[in-house]
Design a protein that fits this description.
Elements (H helix, E strand, L loop, with lengths): L23 E5 L3 H15 L5 E4 L22 E5 L4 E5 L5 H7 L5 E5 L7 E6 L4 H6 L7 E6 L8 H6 L8 E3 L3 H14 L4 E6 L21 H10 L5 E5 L12 E4 L7 H11 L4 E6 L7 H9 L7 E5 L6 E8 L3 H10 L5 H6 L4 E3 L13 H17 L1
Parallel strand pairs: 1-5, 1-6, 2-5, 6-7, 7-8, 9-10, 9-12, 10-11, 13-15
Antiparallel strand pairs: 3-4, 12-14, 13-14
Length: about 400
C-alpha cells in the first residue's frame, strides 16, 4: 500500500459550521462603531425568536500583566463570575475554531465584526470612508450575500465588482434601511431552518416484554413499519434505527440506520442519526407507542422550536420531558456528546438540563408506551375499545 492509498482517519460527515456557527455573517467595509450599531439593531429585533451572538476584537494592545482582569493577573487560566444579571468567563488562553464552534454551537445567528474576524458569509458595506480598508480585505469576500450603501455611497466600488463576478445578483440596501436589513437576516434564518428527518427506534432487545416490540402488530403490520409510515407525512426522510445484526431482516422498502454508537440504547441511536446527517433535525420516536396518532405528531411538528435544542412533550405521569417522542435539533448533537463524555447516556437527563421547548399533549394517552406484558394487555384493551367506538 502506498502513502497515497493510505487513509489515516475515518471519513464522517461534518456539520456545516463556519468559523463560529452554522449561520454567521461578517459585516465589513465600514467603521467598527457603525458595525456595532447595526449588529445591536439586528440582535434586538431577532433575539426574541433566535439565539444571537456577536464577535468582535478590542482595539487595545498591551502585553502588561496588570491589564489582565481579576485572578488572571495572578496566573489563573480561567475565571468565572456570576454577575447576577449575566455570567462572565474570562480566559487567558488562545482559542481556535474548534473551540469557538463548541462555544457558539447553540447560536442561531452570529454577527461578526469583519474588520477584525472572518465568517463564512459576508455583508459588505460600501463606505468611501473605509474604501482602502475594504480593498485590503477582498480575499475575505468569499460568500457575499448583501451589499449595504453608506449615506455617502452611490454604487458598489469597481474593485468589488471585479472581485465578485456575480455581484449584480446580490441584493443592495441602504445602510440606514434597518428594517429591510433585519428582514434580510430573518429570511436567511428561515431558509436555514434544518430539515426534519424521522427516526423510529427499533433496536431494543425488548427484555421486559419478552418479544421484539418492533415486530409486534397492533395496526395490521409490524409496529416499526407502521411508525415509519406514520412519520412519512411529517418528515423528509424516515429511517428505522436498529442494531447491526437486525439490518438484514428489515424490509428493504424502508431505510435502515444501524447503530454506530453501540451499547448505549436509544442514546446511541440518536447519536448515530446525527453522525449520519449532522445538519438535520431528527423526530425520534420509540416503536412501542401503539396509541400514537397523526394529530399528536402534527402538534409536535407545529410547535417545533428550532432555536431550542429540542421540542418535546411533557410526560403526563411525572411532568418530565418525553425523550423518545422528541424533535432533536442539530444543535443538540454536541450537547449529547458532551453528556456522553461526562458519563451520562440518558436522553431525559439531557433534556432536563438543557434549553428545550416542552409542550403538553392534547391527547396524553397517545404517549403511552408498552414495555411489559401487563402494559400490553392494557393498551390492547384501549385499542379494542377504540375499534368498537369507530
Amino acid at each position: 500500500m502506498t502513502l497515497k492509498d493510505h487513509k489515516k482517519h475515518s471519513i464522517i460527515t461534518r456539520p456545516a459550521y463556519g468559523n463560529f456557527a452554522r449561520n454567521e455573517w461578517a459585516i465589513v467595509g465600514t467603521p467598527c462603531g457603525a458595525i456595532k450599531s447595526l449588529a445591536d439593531a439586528v440582535i434586538e429585533a431577532l433575539s426574541p425568536a433566535y439565539k444571537c451572538a456577536y464577535v468582535d476584537a478590542s482595539h487595545a494592545h498591551s502585553d502588561a500583566a496588570e491589564t489582565l482582569p481579576g485572578r488572571l493577573a495572578a496566573g489563573a487560566v480561567t475565571a468565572y463570575t456570576d454577575q447576577i444579571q449575566y455570567h462572565q468567563f474570562d480566559l487567558n488562553k488562545e482559542l481556535n475554531h474548534f473551540q469557538f464552534r463548541q462555544f457558539f454551537s447553540d447560536m442561531d445567528l452570529v454577527l461578526v465584526n469583519g474588520n477584525h474576524e472572518q465568517a463564512k458569509a459576508q455583508v459588505v458595506v460600501i463606505d468611501p470612508a473605509k474604501e482602502s480598508s475594504l480593498q485590503k480585505r477582498l480575499s475575505q469576500l468569499t460568500n457575499v450575500q448583501l451589499f449595504l450603501l453608506a449615506d455617502t455611497a452611490t454604487e458598489v466600488f469597481d474593485f468589488v465588482k471585479e472581485a465578485i463576478p456575480d455581484w449584480q445578483r446580490i441584493s443592495i440596501l441602504g445602510l440606514s434601511e434597518t428594517d429591510k436589513i433585519i428582514n434580510f437576516f430573518q429570511g436567511q434564518l428561515s431558509q436555514a431552518r434544518p430539515k426534519l428527518n424521522g427516526l423510529v427506534l427499533a433496536g431494543g432487545q425488548s427484555l421486559r416484554m419478552g418479544q421484539d416490540k418492533g415486530a409486534m402488530q397492533w395496526h395490521g403490520k409490524e409496529q416499526r413499519y407502521f411508525m415509519a409510515d406514520l412519520l412519512q407525512e411529517f418528515t423528509e426522510e424516515v429511517f428505522i434505527s436498529c442494531r447491526a445484526e437486525q439490518q438484514a431482516e428489515l424490509d428493504t422498502n424502508y431505510k435502515a440506520l444501524p447503530d454506530t454508537f453501540t451499547g448505549l440504547g436509544p442514546y446511541g441511536a440518536i447519536l448515530s442519526a446525527f453522525r449520519e446527517q449532522p445538519d438535520a433535525a431528527w423526530l425520534v420516536m420509540a416503536c412501542d407507542l401503539p396509541l400514537l396518532n397523526k394529530a399528536t405528531l402534527q402538534q409536535l411538528v407545529n410547535r417545533r422550536d428550532s432555536s431550542s435544542i429540542a421540542t418535546t412533550f411533557e410526560s403526563p405521569h411525572d411532568g418530565f420531558p418525553e425523550p423518545l417522542i422528541t424533535i432533536w435539533e442539530p444543535k443538540s448533537y454536541p450537547v449529547l456528546l458532551s453528556f456522553l463524555s461526562q458519563g451520562y447516556t440518558c436522553p431525559r437527563k439531557v433534556l432536563r438540563n438543557s434549553d428545550i421547548s416542552m409542550i403538553k399533549a392534547f391527547e396524553p394517552e397517545a404517549l403511552a408506551n408498552v414495555n411489559t406484558p401487563e402494559e400490553l394487555e392494557r393498551v390492547e384493551q384501549i385499542l379494542q375499545e377504540k375499534k368498537t367506538l369507530s
